[in-house]
Amino acid sequence: LESIQVGELAKKLNLKPGDVIGRLMKMGEMVTINKVIDAETAALVATEFGCEVRVVSLYDETIIKEEEDLAEAMVRRPPVVTIMGHVDHGKTRLLDTIRSTNVIDTEAGAITQHIGAYQVETPQGRITFLDTPGHEAFTAMRARGASVTDIVILVVAADDGVKEQTVEAITHAKEANVPIIVAVNKIDLPNANPDKVKQALVPHGLQPEDWGGTTVFCEISAKNNIGIEHLLEMVLLQAELLDLKANPTVKAVGRVVEARVDPGKGPVATVLVQKGTLREGDPFVVGVYSGRVRAMFDDFNHRLKEAGPATPVEITGLDGVPGSGDPFHVLETEKEAREFASVRQHYKQITEASQRAQPSLRTLDNWM
Ligand code: GTP
Ligand code: MG
């Protein structure tokens, strides 16, 4: 449902706010200048003054036309993986083990920084991992209509088995239509029971391959670095089946993984490039903010000149802190980017105002 503030409507109709308020009150609407009314009411009161209201959705105005992808420009891109699973089943440990044993950077003593995502290089290819807390990142992105994850690794501790959040993770992945690879973790423990985990997952639609199903199960120990290489091979095999491709030649399009204010750098955002190639100096709009890429960094705080599809980069040069899952688009000019951002900001304001007034009105999720 479209909506407008009473004061705004009066301005558009070239009337005094008091006149519009008076007429609305006669119509039985108790309003103030700041009250948000729906388009239907606005149209009704406008006709009273001999005006016609045409509803223009700002949604249409903030959709950014992306460049077309020519088939011959599409190239293989690394898979984007999210690790999910129950509390304490070893998600963080697994991410740490993968990262420390597969660093692209071989420089001794290189200090990693948490930017919410990282990429590793394996003999079979590169893999991008999102390392913001699995469920939150996944649901935040999904809530914004953004499915950036290609594959979910579901970690289940072999000593603890299938738990509430295990099942939740399966539900999330299924809803998003993302394939699951099961990592049965902590097999180093004496009370580990991987078969019990397999049995418990069958009713949830995850049938192991060796039991006639299609789900890949990997037995691992994140702690002792057992089975991790094989797990990554399985991830890349799955990625091959998914035939993941992107066009690196267009203006970059991506999603915000996370964002914050850095004491030294100012507002920074980790952007996962989905297509195109992002470069220093590129003007962009991200959520309701805009800017020009001043610098880009990887998770070792190394400066990058460019970032292609499935590469996560931390960028500086934003004029505010966007939200997780916000869309990111490179545009032709900074002016154009600022214009998009300001229309979105305006729209965000009126949407929030209308939600405070009438919680059932359309939500922000629709503006990108
Ligand atoms: P939350 O972030 O709290 O949901 O937990 P998590 O899933 O990230 O678990 P985390 O990686 O923090 O691991 C929880 C505990 O299990 C830690 O004490 C780990 O050291 C331990 N752990 C993780 N993997 C293994 C493993 O393969 N074997 C053993 N024995 N312990 C493990
Ligand atoms: Mg953790």
Automatic annotation (TrEMBL):
The keyword GTP-binding applies. Residues 79-227 are annotated as: G-domain. It is found in: Cytoplasm. GTP binds at residues 85-92, 131-135, 185-188. Keywords: Cytoplasm, GTP-binding, Initiation factor, Nucleotide-binding, Protein biosynthesis. Residues 76-245 form the Tr-type G domain. GO terms for molecular function: GTP binding; GTPase activity; translation initiation factor activity. Coiled coil: none annotated. One of its GO terms (cellular component) is cytosol. One of the essential components for the initiation of protein synthesis. Protects formylmethionyl-tRNA from spontaneous hydrolysis and promotes its binding to the 30S ribosomal subunits. Also involved in the hydrolysis of GTP during the formation of the 70S ribosomal complex. Belongs to the TRAFAC class translation factor GTPase superfamily. Classic translation factor GTPase family. IF-2 subfamily. This is Translation initiation factor IF-2. The chain holds residues 147 to 514 of 720 of the full protein.
